[in-house]
Design brief:
Two copies of one chain form a homodimer.
Chain A: H1 2-13, E1 24-41, E2 47-50, E3 57-60, E4 64-78, E5 87-90, H2 110-116, E6 121-125, H3 150-155, H4 185-191, H5 200-214, E7 217-222, H6 224-235, E8 240-246, E9 265-269, H7 277-295, E10 300-304, H8 323-336
Parallel strand pairs in A: 5-6, 5-7, 7-8, 8-9, 9-10
Antiparallel strand pairs in A: 1-4, 2-3, 4-6
Chain lengths: 341, 341
């Protein structure tokens, strides 16, 4: 018996992948693209280009078939799964899935934190953002927009509204008690990407393809991702089992909100929302949509973080210094909704 | 003694993160952006835009300071590290780090395979690609180029050269014995992204910043990434301890190749290279560069995969059906160079 136990101890100790308590143990990780369509371009002149200095010339034909309007998804599947459904994290405007990765100041983001909590997490780049790629002017006639340094600082409740940005960091007017890691604002700006104002339908279509591929699921939506997420959920209410909307920048169609009667929803808001007209407007839209869901027989919980004693959160709550605390608020809500084993 | 052993067995069994043999066990994973500069734009008219239909209008100011020319990096650090140095995977033209993730037909890519071999792997998106973002026409005056469906098929030795593409898949002329997963060519096209022909210096500058942040290291370069990688290695030869160049599409500056005298290099080529003038030209450039490294006292090994019995590889070797076999060829070379514990 003693010998058998020794053998058992040795067998356990010899397992190739022993993990420590802080390790992330995955049964799988990978990525894919989903959605998209073929666009045809014709009648444009071809030309010779040199792709790499010193290399041979080759033909560039701007005509033909192009793959456009696909989106990118990366997934991480923990060995010890506790979330009953995949958790899909959708980013906001001018951003990519990087929103949920390491924070600008180098802490773990919600991707890691929710994988550690046992969720299968799918982080994506919407159509036109990041690894989704974007289409040529022959396919999308409008121009992309670009964010200057002042824009997110003043608009995302990092600084105290318009005029709060200054190139001299000592002169920036940060909102009092702000949780955003302002010292890493340069890194945050590096995460921003151009966006178009004309691609909403394509974005929604690709999200629908994603939902059809990996759901039933829970959606975690941020900002512009909320507007897309609610529209998608109205069309796939059987597959969206819960929604966490983090400062959703507008919502779905009030007339279709009843579709979410079986989709419990959490709306989460940071600090200083009511004092900033832009966010007060979006919040009003969100709450009207929440009322419409309730009128249709559904349930919506609204958490204003300052009301539960969590102060100073910017619009980028998942990157704020207390992002782990907010992740716990969301996790507690999901546990309460029976979404965790 | 028996009781102590039982206790020991129970203690081992109770560890929170027990991993199975196929699991990926990470001591950390995350991402960051690196490099970049602030570009100033002035004198352009501001306008009002509505960012999200139904939302409040806001000012879009195309003037100001913009963060441009940064790059994106994602890293995976295995618990049981065996590679002595970080392994940096740099993608080719019109592509992103997705090159190294799940293959278009859903198998594990070199990212997963080398993490499983115990390497700290850093997969990146070069300046202007994917999650690196791109700059406005006010900063980069030239237009990006876009790849149509025929282009990589005919150019990357998937099809048999020019004219081999056909929109009707039954009429496509695939190279005989080709290892590329042609049935998933749609998914491959979804991975392609636009690129510019004018940003080479910015790309190299960001790669230099990456090397300064995470090296000493080993570089694994593909295609256009080879041209960038050798240029970077010439300037940071103390930090680049080995190079694996997978069908490098041109190389560095022959006059500076001697800088690599202490950087053992492997040049790897797939099948049908000599019969396709484009790739024969690049190979000639690579071999001339290899000769210059050797003349400077360095060592370069050249493996033509067909010469060692590995046939049918396209330009996208890391996605070909036998990608695991080629990963093993690279691993064996790295072991031979003393890069593995």
């Amino acid at each position: 018996m003693g010998r058998m136990l020794i053998a058992a101890v040795l067998a356990l100790a010899a397992l190739p992948a022993r993990a420590g308590e802080d390790d992330i143990v995955l049964r799988g990780m990978g990525s894919f693209h989903v959605g998209g369509r073929i666009a045809e371009v014709s009648g444009r002149p071809a030309r010779e280009i040199v792709r790499i200095p010193g290399g041979p010339p080759s033909k560039l034909d701007p005509n033909g078939e192009f793959m456009v309007e696909q989106m990118y998804v990366q997934y991480f599947l923990p060995r010890h799964r506790k979330g009953k459904l995949p958790l899909l994290m959708w980013h906001g405007g001018g951003l990519t899935g990087v929103t949920y990765e390491t924070t600008p100041d180098g802490r773990e983001g919600w991707l890691n934190l929710f994988v550690r909590k046992g969720w299968d997490v799918y982080v994506s780049d919407a159509v036109e953002r990041g690894r989704a790629g974007f289409a040529s002017p022959d396919v999308w006639p409008s121009e992309p927009i670009f964010l200057n340094y002042a824009d997110p600082f003043e608009r995302f409740r990092i600084g105290d509204g318009e005029g709060s940005w200054n190139a001299d960091s000592a002169k920036r007017k940060v909102l009092p008690g702000n949780q955003f890691p302002v010292e890493a604002y340069d890194n945050y700006m590096k995460q921003t990407v151009p966006r178009w104002l004309s691609t909403d339908k394509a974005v929604v279509d690709a999200y629908l393809a994603l939902v059809d591929k990996v759901c039933p699921c829970v959606l975690l939506l941020h900002s512009q991702g909320g507007a897309f997420g609610f529209k998608v959920a109205e069309q796939r209410s059987d597959k969206i089992k819960a929604i966490v909307a983090v400062e959703s920048a507008s919502a779905g169609d009030v007339g279709k909100a009843a579709a979410l009667k079986n989709t419990p929803t959490l709306m989460l808001f940071g600090d200083h929302v009511d004092q900033h007209p832009r966010w007060a407007t979006y919040k009003k839209i969100d709450l009207e949509y929440a009322a419409a869901i309730r009128a249709g027989g559904g349930t919506v919980d609204v958490i204003n973080l300052p009301d539960i004693g969590i102060k100073g959160n910017s619009h980028m709550l998942m990157q704020d210094k207390n992002n782990a605390e907010i992740a716990d608020v969301i996790q507690t809500w999901m546990v309460g909704k029976g979404l965790v084993e």
